[in-house]
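Quick one: structure tokens for this chain, please?
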Amino acid sequence: MSMIDTSWFLNKLKANENKPEQSLLAVFEVLSEMQAQADFVENSEAENALSARTELLAYLNQQAKKAGLQAPELFAQQIYHMANNALIQQQANPASNALGHAKQVASALMQVQRKPDWLQTTQHYLNVKPFQYGLAASVFVLLGAGVLLGYQAKHANAANQIVAITEAQAGTTQNANIDTSMASPGDTAEMYSAIEKMRDGRCRYIEALQLPTAQQEVYLQNVIAGQVSNKASDQKTARELMGKVDCDYTPMLMKNSRG
């Protein structure tokens, strides 16, 4: 089991008397220390990993609320998935400093969520209703965290760029010319089908931050969140971007052949 899913890790995290913001970022610091010192021993097989994970998420949610973040529960999930993903990367390559990069990305995301209109802007940005937002966001967390970490490893100022891009996209959305050209129902259905197929494969998603600003919104909404736009121009752009995603469907084909 992963060291992040243990009560031992949570106890070490709580032992640090920090401000809420520091407690959230301490997730990466404590994991890095434990991993570097190799002081985690697989002696907790009987421990309920799900219970430990639930307790950790509750603690992170509490700290996010104290920090004044606009969507504390979502941020707690983001921190968890990013930390776990970075831990796996750093265990595979100790020199990668994946946990350090993840901490910088988390700090940038924290800056974004401190803005009073963060949730409303993001809902408008993804064009989803509040009850749908959790699902769309979870997809972004699972697929996007790795993208952000990979980008962060290559670009030292990526944390600032994340904040800048988020703000720029909000402004772009408000000032963009209205496109009234609607896609046909058939084209929309094909888009949903193609996106669902990608979900069943092993795909290497392109880095959203390397795309032109105008394409980033289309990519995140349509390809990552799976919320297909009804605009013909957006669907055309989304198809072009989907063509740049490298997917391996071998496991899916093997499963279907056995079925």
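The CA atoms of residues 11 and 104 lie 23 Å apart.
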